[in-house]
Amino acid sequence: MLDFLLGHSIWAFRSGELAFARGWPLWLLFALAGAGLAAIVFTLLRRSELNILQRGVIGLLQFAFLALALLLLWRPVLNVERIRDRENVVAVVVDDSGSMNAPHGQQGSWREQAVRALQDSGALEQIGASSELRLFAFDDRAQSLESLDALPGGAGATRIGDALTTVTQMAASVPMAAVVLVSDGAENGGSLDEAQLARLAATGIPVHAIGVGPEQSDNDVELEQLQAPDSAVAGEMLRAVVSIRHQRQRGTRVRVYDGEKLVAAQEVPLPGKAGLTTVGIEFPAGEEGVRDLRVALDAVNDEASALNNERRAIIDVDGRPRSVLYIEGEPRWEYKFMRRAADGDRSLRVVSAMRATPNRFYRQGVKSGDELKEGLPESEAELDAFDAVILGSIEAAAFSREQHEWLKDYVDRRGGSLLMLAGRDGMGDGGWGRVPVQALLPARLPGGPQPSYGSLSTRARLTTYGEESPIGRLDADPVKNQKLWSELPSLTDFQNIGPLRPGAVVLLEAQSAQRADPLLVWQRYGRGSTWLLATASSWRWQMRLPLEDQRHEQFWRQLLHALAAPAPSRLLIAS
Length: 575
Known about the structure:
The protein is α/β, with parallel strands linked by helices. It is 27% helix and 30% strand.
Protein backbone atom coordinates (compact mmCIF):
# COMPACT_ATOMS: atom_id res chain seq x y z
CA MET A 1 0.00 0.00 0.00
CA LEU A 2 2.81 2.42 0.91
CA ASP A 3 4.67 1.56 -2.27
CA PHE A 4 1.50 2.26 -4.29
CA LEU A 5 0.67 5.55 -2.56
CA LEU A 6 4.16 7.00 -2.12
CA GLY A 7 6.06 5.37 -4.94
CA HIS A 8 8.76 4.09 -2.60
CA SER A 9 8.94 1.58 0.23
CA ILE A 10 8.94 2.61 3.86
CA TRP A 11 12.62 1.52 4.08
CA ALA A 12 13.55 4.12 1.49
CA PHE A 13 11.99 6.84 3.63
CA ARG A 14 13.73 5.52 6.75
CA SER A 15 17.19 5.38 5.17
CA GLY A 16 16.84 8.28 2.73
CA GLU A 17 17.20 12.00 3.28
CA LEU A 18 14.42 14.49 2.38
CA ALA A 19 15.62 17.56 0.48
CA PHE A 20 14.31 20.26 -1.87
CA ALA A 21 15.49 20.26 -5.48
CA ARG A 22 14.51 23.89 -6.23
CA GLY A 23 17.34 25.30 -4.15
CA TRP A 24 15.31 28.24 -2.84
CA PRO A 25 16.00 29.26 0.79
CA LEU A 26 13.88 27.62 3.45
CA TRP A 27 13.33 30.90 5.27
CA LEU A 28 11.33 32.11 2.24
CA LEU A 29 9.13 28.99 2.44
CA PHE A 30 8.32 29.64 6.10
CA ALA A 31 7.85 33.36 5.48
CA LEU A 32 5.26 32.72 2.72
CA ALA A 33 3.51 30.11 4.88
CA GLY A 34 3.33 32.58 7.75
CA ALA A 35 2.02 35.36 5.54
CA GLY A 36 -0.62 33.03 4.07
CA LEU A 37 -1.71 31.92 7.53
CA ALA A 38 -2.08 35.56 8.61
CA ALA A 39 -4.20 36.34 5.51
CA ILE A 40 -6.46 33.31 6.14
CA VAL A 41 -7.03 34.29 9.78
CA PHE A 42 -7.75 37.92 8.77
CA THR A 43 -10.34 36.97 6.14
CA LEU A 44 -12.08 34.45 8.38
CA LEU A 45 -12.39 36.92 11.24
CA ARG A 46 -14.31 39.29 8.94
CA ARG A 47 -16.95 36.65 8.11
CA SER A 48 -19.29 37.03 11.06
CA GLU A 49 -21.93 34.63 9.65
CA LEU A 50 -19.61 31.67 10.43
CA ASN A 51 -19.32 30.19 13.90
CA ILE A 52 -15.98 29.29 15.52
CA LEU A 53 -16.06 25.62 14.45
CA GLN A 54 -16.78 26.49 10.82
CA ARG A 55 -14.02 29.08 10.79
CA GLY A 56 -11.53 26.57 12.23
CA VAL A 57 -12.35 23.83 9.70
CA ILE A 58 -12.24 26.20 6.73
CA GLY A 59 -9.00 27.81 7.97
CA LEU A 60 -7.33 24.43 8.48
CA LEU A 61 -8.26 23.27 4.98
CA GLN A 62 -7.11 26.52 3.40
CA PHE A 63 -3.75 26.46 5.20
CA ALA A 64 -3.22 22.79 4.33
CA PHE A 65 -3.81 23.58 0.65
CA LEU A 66 -1.43 26.54 0.85
CA ALA A 67 1.29 24.47 2.56
CA LEU A 68 0.95 21.70 -0.02
CA ALA A 69 1.21 24.20 -2.86
CA LEU A 70 4.34 25.78 -1.36
CA LEU A 71 5.98 22.36 -0.82
CA LEU A 72 5.30 21.43 -4.44
CA LEU A 73 6.84 24.71 -5.59
CA TRP A 74 10.01 23.85 -3.65
CA ARG A 75 10.10 20.38 -5.32
CA PRO A 76 10.67 17.87 -2.49
CA VAL A 77 12.95 14.92 -3.33
CA LEU A 78 14.11 11.80 -1.49
CA ASN A 79 17.86 11.07 -1.68
CA VAL A 80 18.58 7.38 -1.22
CA GLU A 81 22.06 5.86 -1.42
CA ARG A 82 22.32 2.40 -2.86
CA ILE A 83 25.15 0.28 -4.09
CA ARG A 84 25.11 -0.58 -7.76
CA ASP A 85 26.57 -3.89 -8.77
CA ARG A 86 30.23 -3.69 -9.89
CA GLU A 87 30.20 0.12 -9.69
CA ASN A 88 31.40 0.44 -6.05
CA VAL A 89 34.70 -0.49 -4.42
CA VAL A 90 35.08 -2.64 -1.31
CA ALA A 91 38.59 -2.67 0.16
CA VAL A 92 39.80 -5.68 2.17
CA VAL A 93 42.74 -4.62 4.36
CA VAL A 94 44.77 -7.43 5.97
CA ASP A 95 47.16 -6.84 8.90
CA ASP A 96 50.59 -8.17 7.87
CA SER A 97 52.59 -6.95 10.89
CA GLY A 98 54.94 -8.94 13.07
CA SER A 99 52.31 -9.99 15.61
CA MET A 100 50.13 -11.44 12.83
CA ASN A 101 53.06 -13.43 11.40
CA ALA A 102 54.20 -14.97 14.71
CA PRO A 103 53.64 -18.76 14.80
CA HIS A 104 50.74 -20.04 16.95
CA GLY A 105 50.76 -23.80 17.13
CA GLN A 106 50.14 -26.24 14.30
CA GLN A 107 47.56 -24.03 12.56
CA GLY A 108 50.22 -21.47 11.70
CA SER A 109 50.26 -17.74 12.25
CA TRP A 110 47.13 -15.62 12.65
CA ARG A 111 47.77 -14.17 9.20
CA GLU A 112 47.76 -17.65 7.63
CA GLN A 113 44.60 -18.59 9.50
CA ALA A 114 42.86 -15.37 8.42
CA VAL A 115 43.84 -15.84 4.76
CA ARG A 116 42.58 -19.45 4.78
CA ALA A 117 39.28 -18.35 6.33
CA LEU A 118 38.75 -15.63 3.71
CA GLN A 119 39.57 -17.95 0.82
CA ASP A 120 37.78 -21.11 2.05
CA SER A 121 34.58 -19.33 3.06
CA GLY A 122 34.12 -17.76 -0.34
CA ALA A 123 33.78 -14.30 1.24
CA LEU A 124 36.06 -12.66 -1.32
CA GLU A 125 34.09 -14.15 -4.21
CA GLN A 126 30.82 -12.90 -2.74
CA ILE A 127 32.23 -9.39 -2.36
CA GLY A 128 33.63 -9.50 -5.88
CA ALA A 129 30.27 -10.60 -7.31
CA SER A 130 28.55 -7.35 -6.29
CA SER A 131 31.44 -4.86 -6.00
CA GLU A 132 34.92 -4.20 -7.25
CA LEU A 133 37.29 -5.92 -4.79
CA ARG A 134 40.62 -4.31 -3.91
CA LEU A 135 43.15 -5.98 -1.58
CA PHE A 136 45.62 -4.24 0.74
CA ALA A 137 48.22 -5.29 3.32
CA PHE A 138 49.65 -3.10 6.04
CA ASP A 139 52.13 -3.02 8.89
CA ASP A 140 53.62 0.44 9.47
CA ARG A 141 52.29 1.44 6.02
CA ALA A 142 49.65 0.20 3.58
CA GLN A 143 50.32 -1.29 0.15
CA SER A 144 48.05 -2.74 -2.54
CA LEU A 145 48.06 -6.47 -3.41
CA GLU A 146 47.21 -8.52 -6.46
CA SER A 147 46.13 -11.45 -4.26
CA LEU A 148 46.36 -12.57 -0.64
CA ASP A 149 49.08 -15.04 -1.64
CA ALA A 150 51.36 -12.04 -2.22
CA LEU A 151 51.40 -10.93 1.43
CA PRO A 152 55.06 -10.02 2.06
CA GLY A 153 55.28 -10.42 5.84
CA GLY A 154 55.79 -7.02 7.43
CA ALA A 155 57.61 -5.22 10.19
CA GLY A 156 56.89 -5.21 13.90
CA ALA A 157 55.01 -1.90 13.87
CA THR A 158 51.22 -1.85 13.42
CA ARG A 159 49.64 1.46 12.37
CA ILE A 160 45.95 0.71 11.85
CA GLY A 161 44.91 4.37 11.74
CA ASP A 162 47.41 5.28 9.03
CA ALA A 163 46.41 2.24 6.96
CA LEU A 164 42.69 3.13 7.11
CA THR A 165 43.48 6.75 6.21
CA THR A 166 45.50 5.65 3.17
CA VAL A 167 42.74 3.33 1.95
CA THR A 168 39.83 5.74 2.54
CA GLN A 169 41.64 8.48 0.63
CA MET A 170 40.67 6.54 -2.49
CA ALA A 171 37.12 7.76 -1.92
CA ALA A 172 38.12 11.02 -3.59
CA SER A 173 38.52 9.24 -6.94
CA VAL A 174 36.45 6.04 -6.71
CA PRO A 175 33.06 5.20 -5.14
CA MET A 176 34.19 3.55 -1.91
CA ALA A 177 31.36 1.48 -0.42
CA ALA A 178 33.08 -0.14 2.58
CA VAL A 179 36.36 -1.23 4.14
CA VAL A 180 36.86 -4.68 5.66
CA LEU A 181 39.71 -4.71 8.20
CA VAL A 182 41.30 -8.03 9.23
CA SER A 183 43.65 -7.61 12.22
CA ASP A 184 44.58 -8.86 15.66
CA GLY A 185 44.11 -5.30 16.90
CA ALA A 186 47.66 -4.96 18.23
CA GLU A 187 47.96 -1.27 17.27
CA ASN A 188 51.34 -0.04 18.54
CA GLY A 189 52.06 2.90 16.23
CA GLY A 190 50.02 5.50 18.11
CA SER A 191 47.96 6.21 14.97
CA LEU A 192 44.50 5.28 16.25
CA ASP A 193 43.68 8.13 18.61
CA GLU A 194 40.37 9.98 19.01
CA ALA A 195 41.26 12.60 16.40
CA GLN A 196 42.07 9.91 13.83
CA LEU A 197 38.84 8.06 14.58
CA ALA A 198 36.87 11.31 14.14
CA ARG A 199 38.48 11.91 10.74
CA LEU A 200 37.64 8.37 9.65
CA ALA A 201 34.03 8.78 10.81
CA ALA A 202 33.76 12.03 8.84
CA THR A 203 34.41 10.15 5.58
CA GLY A 204 31.11 8.27 6.02
CA ILE A 205 32.73 5.04 4.81
CA PRO A 206 31.75 2.06 7.00
CA VAL A 207 34.64 0.02 8.39
CA HIS A 208 33.87 -3.63 9.22
CA ALA A 209 36.49 -5.14 11.54
CA ILE A 210 37.24 -8.86 11.68
CA GLY A 211 39.20 -9.79 14.78
CA VAL A 212 41.87 -12.48 14.60
CA GLY A 213 43.21 -14.30 17.64
CA PRO A 214 42.16 -13.91 21.30
CA GLU A 215 40.65 -10.66 22.50
CA GLN A 216 43.25 -10.48 25.27
CA SER A 217 46.41 -12.47 25.83
CA ASP A 218 46.90 -13.81 29.33
CA ASN A 219 50.68 -13.89 29.09
CA ASP A 220 52.02 -10.93 27.14
CA VAL A 221 53.87 -7.71 27.84
CA GLU A 222 54.00 -4.94 25.27
CA LEU A 223 56.17 -1.85 25.11
CA GLU A 224 53.33 0.41 24.03
CA GLN A 225 55.08 3.77 23.95
CA LEU A 226 58.61 5.19 24.08
CA GLN A 227 59.43 8.83 24.72
CA ALA A 228 63.09 9.81 24.30
CA PRO A 229 64.79 13.16 23.58
CA ASP A 230 65.59 13.95 19.96
CA SER A 231 68.96 15.52 20.76
CA ALA A 232 71.54 15.53 23.55
CA VAL A 233 75.04 16.60 24.47
CA ALA A 234 77.92 14.11 24.54
CA GLY A 235 78.33 12.65 28.03
CA GLU A 236 74.90 13.81 29.21
CA MET A 237 72.63 11.50 31.19
CA LEU A 238 69.31 11.11 29.40
CA ARG A 239 65.93 9.80 30.47
CA ALA A 240 63.51 7.74 28.42
CA VAL A 241 59.89 7.18 29.46
CA VAL A 242 58.37 3.82 28.53
CA SER A 243 54.76 2.66 28.84
CA ILE A 244 54.29 -1.08 29.35
CA ARG A 245 51.00 -2.85 28.64
CA HIS A 246 50.74 -6.00 30.76
CA GLN A 247 48.31 -8.59 32.12
CA ARG A 248 48.98 -10.30 35.44
CA GLN A 249 52.78 -10.19 35.50
CA ARG A 250 54.64 -9.19 38.65
CA GLY A 251 57.60 -7.61 36.94
CA THR A 252 59.81 -7.29 33.89
CA ARG A 253 63.15 -5.77 32.91
CA VAL A 254 63.74 -2.85 30.54
CA ARG A 255 66.99 -2.81 28.56
CA VAL A 256 68.39 0.10 26.55
CA TYR A 257 70.71 -0.64 23.63
CA ASP A 258 72.85 1.72 21.59
CA GLY A 259 72.86 -0.35 18.44
CA GLU A 260 73.82 -3.76 19.84
CA LYS A 261 75.58 -2.37 22.93
CA LEU A 262 73.69 -2.57 26.23
CA VAL A 263 73.92 0.85 27.95
CA ALA A 264 71.27 0.57 30.70
CA ALA A 265 68.90 -1.91 32.34
CA GLN A 266 66.25 -1.53 35.00
CA GLU A 267 63.89 -3.86 36.83
CA VAL A 268 60.26 -2.71 36.60
CA PRO A 269 57.78 -4.03 39.19
CA LEU A 270 54.25 -4.61 37.86
CA PRO A 271 51.06 -4.67 39.96
CA GLY A 272 50.03 -8.23 39.07
CA LYS A 273 46.87 -7.15 37.20
CA ALA A 274 46.11 -5.98 33.69
CA GLY A 275 46.87 -2.34 32.97
CA LEU A 276 49.44 0.19 31.79
CA THR A 277 52.58 1.02 33.76
CA THR A 278 54.79 4.00 32.87
CA VAL A 279 58.36 4.27 34.15
CA GLY A 280 61.50 6.24 33.37
CA ILE A 281 64.96 4.83 32.74
CA GLU A 282 68.18 6.80 32.62
CA PHE A 283 71.05 6.09 30.23
CA PRO A 284 74.19 7.91 28.99
CA ALA A 285 74.06 9.80 25.70
CA GLY A 286 77.51 8.53 24.75
CA GLU A 287 79.91 10.11 22.29
CA GLU A 288 79.15 12.55 19.51
CA GLY A 289 77.11 11.11 16.65
CA VAL A 290 73.72 9.62 15.90
CA ARG A 291 72.50 7.03 18.40
CA ASP A 292 70.28 4.19 17.19
CA LEU A 293 68.41 3.65 20.44
CA ARG A 294 66.59 0.36 20.99
CA VAL A 295 64.53 -0.16 24.15
CA ALA A 296 63.36 -3.73 24.80
CA LEU A 297 61.43 -5.68 27.44
CA ASP A 298 62.58 -9.10 28.55
CA ALA A 299 60.10 -11.74 27.42
CA VAL A 300 58.05 -13.30 30.23
CA ASN A 301 57.80 -17.07 30.65
CA ASP A 302 55.92 -18.73 27.78
CA GLU A 303 55.10 -15.38 26.16
CA ALA A 304 53.20 -15.99 22.94
CA SER A 305 55.02 -13.31 20.94
CA ALA A 306 57.89 -10.97 21.81
CA LEU A 307 57.58 -8.93 18.61
CA ASN A 308 55.82 -6.10 20.47
CA ASN A 309 58.45 -5.94 23.21
CA GLU A 310 60.71 -3.28 21.73
CA ARG A 311 60.74 0.23 20.28
CA ARG A 312 63.37 2.33 18.55
CA ALA A 313 64.35 5.99 18.57
CA ILE A 314 67.06 8.13 16.99
CA ILE A 315 69.03 10.62 19.12
CA ASP A 316 71.41 13.20 17.66
CA VAL A 317 74.28 13.63 20.13
CA ASP A 318 76.13 16.93 19.85
CA GLY A 319 79.81 16.84 20.77
CA ARG A 320 79.87 20.53 21.63
CA PRO A 321 79.68 21.05 25.42
CA ARG A 322 77.04 23.45 26.72
CA SER A 323 78.52 26.75 27.89
CA VAL A 324 77.33 28.44 31.08
CA LEU A 325 78.46 31.90 32.22
CA TYR A 326 78.44 32.37 36.02
CA ILE A 327 78.96 35.94 37.28
CA GLU A 328 79.48 36.23 41.04
CA GLY A 329 79.92 39.42 43.04
CA GLU A 330 81.72 38.02 46.08
CA PRO A 331 83.66 34.90 47.16
CA ARG A 332 81.27 32.47 48.82
CA TRP A 333 80.77 28.75 49.37
CA GLU A 334 77.94 28.34 46.85
CA TYR A 335 80.29 29.52 44.09
CA LYS A 336 83.01 27.06 45.05
CA PHE A 337 80.82 23.97 45.40
CA MET A 338 78.72 24.66 42.31
CA ARG A 339 81.86 24.89 40.18
CA ARG A 340 83.17 21.69 41.74
CA ALA A 341 79.90 19.89 40.88
CA ALA A 342 80.09 21.01 37.24
CA ASP A 343 83.76 20.13 36.79
CA GLY A 344 82.97 16.41 36.71
CA ASP A 345 80.63 16.76 33.71
CA ARG A 346 82.53 17.07 30.43
CA SER A 347 79.33 17.97 28.60
CA LEU A 348 79.27 21.25 30.54
CA ARG A 349 81.65 24.18 30.30
CA VAL A 350 81.22 26.65 33.15
CA VAL A 351 82.99 29.96 32.66
CA SER A 352 82.95 32.01 35.85
CA ALA A 353 83.89 35.58 36.68
CA MET A 354 84.01 36.31 40.40
CA ARG A 355 84.62 39.88 41.59
CA ALA A 356 87.66 39.75 43.85
CA THR A 357 88.14 43.54 44.24
CA PRO A 358 85.94 46.46 43.08
CA ASN A 359 87.80 46.62 39.74
CA ARG A 360 89.05 43.08 39.26
CA PHE A 361 87.36 39.77 38.40
CA TYR A 362 88.84 36.35 38.98
CA ARG A 363 88.07 34.18 35.91
CA GLN A 364 87.90 30.40 35.67
CA GLY A 365 87.17 28.12 32.74
CA VAL A 366 88.03 30.66 30.03
CA LYS A 367 89.47 29.47 26.72
CA SER A 368 91.93 32.35 26.39
CA GLY A 369 93.11 35.49 28.14
CA ASP A 370 90.84 37.61 25.97
CA GLU A 371 87.60 35.85 26.98
CA LEU A 372 85.75 37.99 29.53
CA LYS A 373 88.93 39.95 30.14
CA GLU A 374 86.92 42.69 31.87
CA GLY A 375 84.88 40.21 33.89
CA LEU A 376 81.58 41.11 32.23
CA PRO A 377 80.64 40.62 28.56
CA GLU A 378 81.86 43.56 26.47
CA SER A 379 79.56 42.90 23.53
CA GLU A 380 76.24 41.24 22.82
CA ALA A 381 78.03 38.66 20.66
CA GLU A 382 80.27 37.69 23.60
CA LEU A 383 77.18 37.16 25.77
CA ASP A 384 75.37 35.20 23.05
CA ALA A 385 78.24 32.69 22.93
CA PHE A 386 76.83 31.13 26.12
CA ASP A 387 73.80 28.85 26.44
CA ALA A 388 72.91 29.98 29.98
CA VAL A 389 73.82 32.79 32.39
CA ILE A 390 73.87 32.63 36.20
CA LEU A 391 73.92 35.80 38.30
CA GLY A 392 75.00 35.43 41.90
CA SER A 393 75.28 38.03 44.64
CA ILE A 394 76.07 40.98 42.39
CA GLU A 395 74.17 44.26 42.21
CA ALA A 396 72.43 45.43 39.04
CA ALA A 397 74.45 48.68 39.15
CA ALA A 398 77.59 46.69 38.23
CA PHE A 399 76.16 46.38 34.70
CA SER A 400 75.82 49.19 32.20
CA ARG A 401 72.55 50.15 30.58
CA GLU A 402 73.64 48.41 27.38
CA GLN A 403 74.50 45.23 29.25
CA HIS A 404 71.03 45.16 30.83
CA GLU A 405 69.47 45.38 27.37
CA TRP A 406 71.77 42.59 26.20
CA LEU A 407 70.59 40.37 29.06
CA LYS A 408 66.94 41.03 28.18
CA ASP A 409 67.50 40.26 24.49
CA TYR A 410 69.64 37.26 25.43
CA VAL A 411 66.59 35.55 26.92
CA ASP A 412 63.90 36.97 24.67
CA ARG A 413 65.59 36.64 21.25
CA ARG A 414 68.68 34.47 21.68
CA GLY A 415 66.70 31.79 23.57
CA GLY A 416 69.13 31.53 26.48
CA SER A 417 68.33 30.84 30.14
CA LEU A 418 68.97 33.23 33.02
CA LEU A 419 69.26 31.98 36.63
CA MET A 420 69.45 34.35 39.60
CA LEU A 421 70.81 33.09 42.91
CA ALA A 422 70.00 34.43 46.37
CA GLY A 423 72.53 36.70 48.06
CA ARG A 424 72.93 39.93 49.98
CA ASP A 425 73.40 41.77 46.66
CA GLY A 426 71.25 39.40 44.61
CA MET A 427 67.71 39.59 43.25
CA GLY A 428 65.65 42.39 44.84
CA ASP A 429 68.39 43.43 47.30
CA GLY A 430 70.70 44.06 44.35
CA GLY A 431 68.23 46.32 42.58
CA TRP A 432 67.31 43.75 39.93
CA GLY A 433 63.65 44.57 40.37
CA ARG A 434 64.20 48.01 38.81
CA VAL A 435 66.00 47.10 35.56
CA PRO A 436 64.68 45.83 32.18
CA VAL A 437 65.33 42.17 32.96
CA GLN A 438 62.82 42.23 35.83
CA ALA A 439 59.94 41.96 33.34
CA LEU A 440 61.26 38.52 32.29
CA LEU A 441 61.52 36.99 35.77
CA PRO A 442 58.97 34.50 37.17
CA ALA A 443 58.35 36.74 40.23
CA ARG A 444 58.04 40.46 40.96
CA LEU A 445 61.20 41.02 43.00
CA PRO A 446 60.62 43.11 46.13
CA GLY A 447 62.58 46.30 46.56
CA GLY A 448 62.71 48.43 49.67
CA PRO A 449 64.74 49.43 52.71
CA GLN A 450 64.26 46.04 54.38
CA PRO A 451 66.52 43.27 52.98
CA SER A 452 64.78 40.25 51.52
CA TYR A 453 67.79 37.97 52.11
CA GLY A 454 68.60 36.59 55.55
CA SER A 455 69.15 33.59 57.77
CA LEU A 456 66.35 31.05 57.89
CA SER A 457 66.41 27.31 58.49
CA THR A 458 64.38 25.50 55.83
CA ARG A 459 64.30 22.18 54.02
CA ALA A 460 63.96 21.71 50.28
CA ARG A 461 60.76 19.91 49.28
CA LEU A 462 59.75 18.78 45.81
CA THR A 463 56.48 20.02 44.36
CA THR A 464 54.36 17.97 41.95
CA TYR A 465 56.11 19.71 39.04
CA GLY A 466 59.47 19.05 40.67
CA GLU A 467 58.75 15.32 40.86
CA GLU A 468 58.17 15.25 37.10
CA SER A 469 61.17 17.43 36.26
CA PRO A 470 64.60 15.86 35.60
CA ILE A 471 66.08 18.50 37.93
CA GLY A 472 64.50 16.92 40.99
CA ARG A 473 65.22 13.31 40.05
CA LEU A 474 67.82 11.91 42.43
CA ASP A 475 66.52 8.38 41.84
CA ALA A 476 64.32 6.84 39.14
CA ASP A 477 62.03 5.31 41.79
CA PRO A 478 59.55 8.03 42.94
CA VAL A 479 59.40 6.66 46.50
CA LYS A 480 63.19 6.50 46.85
CA ASN A 481 63.47 9.93 45.25
CA GLN A 482 61.19 11.49 47.86
CA LYS A 483 63.18 9.80 50.63
CA LEU A 484 66.49 11.11 49.26
CA TRP A 485 65.13 14.67 49.21
CA SER A 486 63.69 14.41 52.72
CA GLU A 487 67.09 13.28 54.05
CA LEU A 488 69.00 16.29 52.67
CA PRO A 489 70.49 18.63 55.30
CA SER A 490 68.60 21.84 55.99
CA LEU A 491 69.35 25.14 54.26
CA THR A 492 70.42 28.09 56.40
CA ASP A 493 69.44 31.11 54.30
CA PHE A 494 66.48 32.25 52.22
CA GLN A 495 65.52 35.19 50.03
CA ASN A 496 61.98 36.40 49.45
CA ILE A 497 61.39 36.57 45.70
CA GLY A 498 58.03 38.36 45.88
CA PRO A 499 54.68 37.43 44.29
CA LEU A 500 54.82 34.93 41.45
CA ARG A 501 53.79 35.81 37.91
CA PRO A 502 50.96 33.84 36.22
CA GLY A 503 53.35 31.71 34.13
CA ALA A 504 55.69 30.75 36.98
CA VAL A 505 56.27 27.06 37.81
CA VAL A 506 57.52 26.12 41.29
CA LEU A 507 59.80 23.06 41.30
CA LEU A 508 61.12 23.29 44.88
CA GLU A 509 59.68 24.79 48.04
CA ALA A 510 61.49 25.98 51.17
CA GLN A 511 59.68 24.25 54.03
CA SER A 512 60.08 25.97 57.41
CA ALA A 513 58.27 25.48 60.69
CA GLN A 514 55.72 28.17 59.80
CA ARG A 515 55.20 27.99 56.04
CA ALA A 516 56.34 26.83 52.60
CA ASP A 517 57.78 29.39 50.18
CA PRO A 518 58.93 29.08 46.55
CA LEU A 519 62.56 27.99 46.44
CA LEU A 520 63.25 27.13 42.77
CA VAL A 521 60.97 28.81 40.23
CA TRP A 522 61.08 29.15 36.44
CA GLN A 523 59.04 30.45 33.55
CA ARG A 524 59.35 30.74 29.80
CA TYR A 525 59.82 34.17 28.25
CA GLY A 526 60.15 34.70 24.53
CA ARG A 527 62.48 32.05 23.16
CA GLY A 528 64.23 31.44 26.49
CA SER A 529 63.48 31.04 30.18
CA THR A 530 64.28 32.68 33.52
CA TRP A 531 64.90 31.01 36.87
CA LEU A 532 65.12 32.04 40.54
CA LEU A 533 66.84 29.98 43.27
CA ALA A 534 66.01 31.59 46.61
CA THR A 535 68.94 30.15 48.60
CA ALA A 536 72.73 30.22 48.54
CA SER A 537 73.36 27.38 50.99
CA SER A 538 72.86 24.24 48.92
CA TRP A 539 76.59 23.67 49.48
CA ARG A 540 75.63 22.32 52.93
CA TRP A 541 74.23 19.23 51.17
CA GLN A 542 77.81 18.38 50.23
CA MET A 543 79.45 19.39 53.49
CA ARG A 544 76.95 17.61 55.75
CA LEU A 545 76.79 14.38 53.73
CA PRO A 546 79.40 11.63 53.30
CA LEU A 547 82.08 12.30 50.69
CA GLU A 548 80.77 9.58 48.39
CA ASP A 549 77.22 11.01 48.42
CA GLN A 550 76.65 12.70 45.04
CA ARG A 551 73.25 14.29 45.61
CA HIS A 552 74.57 17.86 45.61
CA GLU A 553 76.60 17.32 42.44
CA GLN A 554 73.68 15.51 40.77
CA PHE A 555 71.24 18.32 41.55
CA TRP A 556 73.51 21.02 40.15
CA ARG A 557 74.44 19.08 37.03
CA GLN A 558 70.77 18.42 36.27
CA LEU A 559 69.92 22.06 36.90
CA LEU A 560 72.74 23.29 34.63
CA HIS A 561 71.66 20.92 31.88
CA ALA A 562 68.06 22.10 32.21
CA LEU A 563 69.30 25.69 31.85
CA ALA A 564 71.61 25.15 28.88
CA ALA A 565 70.02 22.33 26.87
CA PRO A 566 67.03 24.23 25.38
CA ALA A 567 69.18 27.07 23.99
CA PRO A 568 69.40 26.93 20.17
CA SER A 569 72.83 26.70 18.58
CA ARG A 570 74.22 29.93 17.19
CA LEU A 571 74.46 30.30 13.42
CA LEU A 572 77.89 31.59 12.42
CA ILE A 573 78.41 32.90 8.88
CA ALA A 574 82.04 33.19 7.81
CA SER A 575 82.85 35.88 5.28
